[in-house]
Amino acid sequence: MASITQLFDDLCEALLPAAKTHLGQRSVNRKRAKRSLKKVAYNALFTNLFQDETQQLQPDMSKLPARNKILMLSFDLRVGGLGPKADRLEELVEELEAAPCCPLLEVGSVLDLLVQLAGSGPPQVLPRKRDYFLNNKHVGRNVPYSGYDCDDLSVFEMDVQSLISREECLCHSMIQETLQVMEAAPGTGLPTVGLFSFGDPCGDRFERDTRVSLFGALVHSRTYDMDVRLGLPPVPDNADLSGLAIKVPPSVDQWEDEGFQSASNLTPDSQSEPSVTPDVDLWEAALTYEASKRRCWERVGCPPGHREEPYLTEAGRDAFDKFCRLHQGELQLLAGGVLQAPQPVLVKECELVKDVLNVLIGVVSATFSLCQPAQAFVVKRGVHVSGASPESISSLLSEVAEYGTCYTRLSHFSLQPVLDSLYSKGLVFQAFTSGLRRYLQYYRACVLSTPPTLSLLTIGFLFKKLGRQLRYLAELCGVGAVLPGTCGGGPRAAFPTGVKLLSYLYQEALHNCSNEHYPVLLSLLKTSCEPYTRFIHDWVYSGVFRDAYGEFMIQVNHEYLSFRDKLYWTHGYVLISKEVEDCVPVFLKHIAHDIYVCGKTINLLKLCCPRHYLCWSDVPVPRISVIFSLEELKEIEKDCAVYVGRMERVARHSSVSKEEKELRMEIAKQELIAHAREAASRVLSALSDRQMSERMALDARKREQFQRLKEQFVKDQERRQAARQEELDDDFSYARELRDRERRLKSLEEELERKARQALVDHYSKLSAEAARREQKALWRIQRHRLESARLRFLLEDEKHIQEMLKAVSEAHQPQEPPDVLLSVHPQALGGAGTLRTSLQIGLSTHRKTQLPRAAQAVVRRRRHRRRRLRVGSRPTWQAWQGSTTWSGTRTVTSPCVQSAADETAVQLSELLTLPVLMKRSITAPLAAHISLVNKAAVDYFFVELHLEAHYEALRHFLLMEDGEFAQSLSDLLFEKLGAGQTPGELLNPLVLNSVLSKALQCSLHGDTPHASNLSLALKYLPEVFAPNAPDVLSCLELRYKVDWPLNIVITEGCVSKYSGVFSFLLQLKLMMWALKDVCFHLKRTALLSHMAGSVQFRQLQLFKHEMQHFVKVIQGYIANQILHVTWCEFRARLATVGDLEEIQRAHAEYLHKAVFRGLLTEKAAPVMNVIHSIFSLVLKFRSQLISQAWGPPGGPRGAEHPNFALMQQSYNTFKYYSHFLFKVVTKLVNRGYQPHLEDFLLRINFNNYYQDA
Predict the structure, then answer these.
(1) Backbone angles phi, psi at 465, to 5 degrees
(2) Regarding beta strands 383-384 and 345-346, do their DSSP bridges make them parallel or antiparallel, or are they unpaired?
(3) Predicted confidence band at 238 (pLDDT cuts at 50, 70, 90)?
(4) 929 with 595: CB under 8 angstroms?
(5) What is the 3-state secondary structure (H, E, C) of 844-904?
(6) Model pTM score
(7) Any idea what DSSP says for residue 812?
């Protein structure tokens, strides 16, 4: 048997792995690892031999069996993802224990030794993981660190250490190599071969023999060291070496090698040949070297220089045609009949030019055929002219064919429709197609005026811009060109009509405001807007509705036009859609509702007041149209100002405005105050005179009496005489002071009256002066407009004079260059309608402006400045043809005048003002001016002529019970009859109700007003009996207010019903106050008749009544403050700012909504109102219990007692509970910010913190 030392040595050798070194890792030292393993083994052996020392070193180690420790190691292996090794370990332990030859004691010792050796081996080099936690498996618990290394942790640490060490090594190597290169001589030690390979470049034999040698350097132009001297390859004797006499060795990069040099002509013998390159400084050679241009291996020996070969076209058209035929034949031979090329068709250029001009206007020819299904022109294959290939001609002709296709499709799209009963596209679409036809007519005139002597390239260049416009218009109209045989992508969307078409054109113009399509779109937009502006003109100015195709914003319901209530206003004329974009174009959506209301208002005024000045006024109205001319825009602004001034003058002479009425009312009020003060002063003076006369008569009588008794009472008379004299002095001084005060007050009132009259006179004087100034300004503008023709004539004469001067100057400088032919379009004004005609002229132009003298140039600048001030923009509508082309000979072609597709003014402001600004100044400005006049006239008519505000005040006086005398009288009369026990048939009959209303109006302060006749009491229903103790016992009764046409547009039936709801609630409050007043009357009567001063119950009932009365008065005060004062003041402030009838309706509706909301009459406030109704019922119940029985005799120490006192006390307790509950509910509502107006209610009811302290 071997010794322990030998066994430990064998065990360490068996545990050591095979030596493998991975890239970037350090090699494992086997001796060092073996020594560490032996150290661990001996430590484990010695620890087991000396148990006492082990216990001292490891006092906490658990004494477990060796098998359990093996199982723990197996579990650690499974946790680390090494399941197979764990299974293998368990199998080996089971075999060892099952072996019969091994005694149990030795097996335990061996297992114990192996457990101690666990984890003490050398670190195993595992393959690097891409994810450090890929093989980790969670087994439900965290394994604690048990004194030995975890496998995954060790692997993780080794991988990280390996990565860090490799990166540090590479970084250190790179720094060292960089320092060596920078410190070495130029080109020394550069590893050129290893730049793109990883590893030692000298490790391969083939690399050493071929690349890292002089032979390899000559082949691959690379070497491992630049100190190696290289030579040139052998050159023939007859070669000219003048081009190779350079200062540096030739170097050809293997990537730039063109294949003319190979390794076959380079032999090792060439390495020994002497070099012809002188030994010079490399840096100097690199700095002074100039590489020759156009060098290649084929031209060795030739000096460098530019040697360009002539172009093929310089040989003439015949040579080009022969060359093309030669190559076509070669292609046919190479293809072997597989390539089916089109047969070339030679066409004369003049014939092809005619076909091109014909196809531009949609005429079929031999070169261009029309595909009927696709409505597209197709170019005949193989067509070409001499000197050009079929492919180049085909590309040019295809572009021209596309123009012809777009023209044909646009012509079909813009055909004049048949206006019958089936036509439904509307007037806007007709106007759009008419504008499109005018553009196509202009385009056709341009094509027909083009001379057929131009070349194909010239025609293609001249028609590029018009072709782009045609292509864009085809895409705009949804008929864009689609290549034959391809799918269009899906069904096209329907082309818009009506106002949607106007919005579509407006949006397109905005998107293309900076390109060449902008003028075309402006012209089409202007033409398309004409039917819509005519409709708007008739509707806004006259209220006339003309819409034959139903394409505009309004729909008429004739059955509602005969109504004379709110339905006429809301349903007679309605918008076709709730979406604004469906009703008006985009550029009018901000005033769409104003336009709609303006027309309705005009029709309402015609119906209600045919003699209104808006209905018969003959003042010329400003036109409404799309305008792009600065002069016309200024003219429209002037017309709007003149129109507004004249209409305001007519309005002042024909009617009274709302503001003037308010001013007159204020003046009348001040005059009434002055008269009242005068009357009061007269009454006071008469009273003082009467008092003075009476006092003097009394003094005379007293004097006579004193005279008779002076003998008897001498001393007393003297004393009394002195006192009487003193009293008289005091009276006279007081009267004198009173007269002086009255005199000062009278003078002050006279001064205030004089100032008020002077202010009124100054105000009207200012208005008259302002009107005169406006009229003078309008007359000045008219005079300036009349003199405009003379001013223009003067400027034109000045311009002619300048032209003559320029002509005289230019004759002195004859042109030295051949003239250029310019093709341009010049607009000319035609007729009074403002349309323009264009003429296509080809004229001579010289570019000699730089040779003119300075004086002539100054004249030219002044002329340009003057023309720029005269009109903005002098270029034509569409400068579709630009540039010049050389043309032998001078020829002027004058084309026929055709109607232009757009006005000249369509682009005058396109570079100065944006399209929204132009639309606002041309369309919105006159609309806004007239709409403001109509709305003000309607508001004045309702407030001044119909006295709308007086009706609002009448409703407030009577239905909201602001007139206290009327409300108190009406409620007392009704409740007295109700308390007398009358039946519904006796009380609720017309005779009784009319009598009650008449008596209430007689007691009212406003009973004599004309609007009081509109009141009437009506029954909602007739109850069988009156419910006892019900606060809404008279809910069957309502106070109605009659509203006539057209005031019922604003004061509708719904509004009157809301007034009636508030009236019913106020009537309940009046009933509560009447009931409590009746209780107070009964208690006072009982106290007077029965001497109830010592009754305890009587005093308690007085307190109960007082608390109930306080609650009812709080609610009454809250309602009076919130509805009669706060809400009314807000309504008056809103009425002062209304602008039209719609705003009046909204203001009145908002006023009623606030009144109902603050009166707790909404559905959301129903729980609170139910509590209030319960409290009201308890008040009525308390009264009934009090008057139902008489008081008992005062026969006890507590005084007289009432038989129903216990019931009344119970009613009071219930009232107290409900009132406290209501206080809590309202407090929570206020604290949460809901209904902040209830703070007024809390402040009133919680007097002296009564409810809060309770």
Answers:
(1) -70, -45
(2) parallel
(3) low
(4) no
(5) EECCCHHHCCHHHHHHHHHHHHHHHHHCCCCCCCCCCCCCEECCCCCCCCECCCEECCCCH
(6) 0.56
(7) T
